[in-house]
Structures are given as structure tokens and as C-alpha cells.
Amino acid sequence: MGSGEWQTVGRHTAQVDAEAVQAYPQLQRLIDLREAGWTFVHRFTDAGELRQINGMYAWPDGHVDGVRIRATTEAAAVRWNGAGRVLWEKDGGLVEVVDGLLALPVPS
Questions:
Q1: pLDDT mean over 49-71
Q2: For 90-100, what is each residue's pLDDT tens digit?
Q3: Rounded Cα gap, residues 56 and 47, in angstroms
Q4: 3-class secondary structure for 38-103?
Q5: Can you give the pTM of this predicted structure?
Q6: Strand, helix or coil at 27?
Q7: Most CB atoms closer than 10 Å: which of 3, 5, 67, 70?
Q8: Can you say how many angstroms the Cα of residue 64 is from the centroid of all Cα atoms in its chain?
Q9: H or E element: which one contains 33?
Q10: How confident is the model at residue 8 (pLDDT cuts 50, 70, 90)?
Q11: Which residues lie across from 75 on neighbouring strands?
């Protein structure tokens, strides 16, 4: 690890989040999803570079919301019902896609 990497070890997540959002304001949308109970998986290229972030939220009734982010300008989201049928989907920039997800009603 380089010396800069050691600086983040042990710091409170809120402080790290604040610094990340200050540098990249769009990240606030991902933090909002994480705080709402979403889980994320990071996908990397063979060279170790971040290629994509996948997120999902499983509702108690079987509905599932998903999001894929490749860049701040390239994101997609979807809501499936318990049978796997697409109920809603959106492509666009990170902010508009996540805002769309957060605006969806609780499935019923």
C-alpha cells in the first residue's frame, strides 16, 4: 500500500463519504441507495480497473430493483416483479437513473 492508502484505514465511513462526495458529487446518489439498504458488487477489468458497479435491493414481497453504473453518464436501472417481469426501467446518467429509482413507490 502507498502512504496515501493508509490514510483512509480506520476512518469513519461518514468522513470518507463526505470527502468522496466533495470530489465527485454524483456519488451521493450511491450513498443514498446504500443507506436505503442496497448492496453493491464492483466489477473490474483484467487490469484491475473498475469497469462497472452493480447494485440491487430485494423487497420483502419478491420485487427486485437493480442498477448498473459504468460511468456518471452511463447507468441503467430496472424493477422486476417476483415472477421476473420488468415493471420499470430507465437508462441515462447516474443522477437521473438513481433519482428515478428513489422516486418509485414501494411495490405492492
A1: 95
A2: 999 999 999 99
A3: 25
A4: CEEEEEECCCCCEEEEEEEEECCCCCEEEEEEEECCEEEEEEECCCCCEEEEEEECHHHHHHHHHH
A5: 0.81
A6: helix
A7: 67
A8: 14
A9: helix 27-35
A10: very low
A11: 69, 92
CB neighbours (10 Å) of residue 29?
Answer: 23
* CB 56 within 8 Å of CB 92: no
Give the single-character DSSP code of 104: S
As a whole number, mean pLDDT of residues 97-106 equals 94
How far is the C-alpha of 104 from the C-alpha of 102, rounded, in Å?
6
Bridge partner residues of 105 (DSSP): none
Cα–Cα nearest to 84, from 104, 71, 66, 102: 66
- Cell 480497473 maps to which residue? 49
CA distance 94 to 71: 7
SS3 13: helix
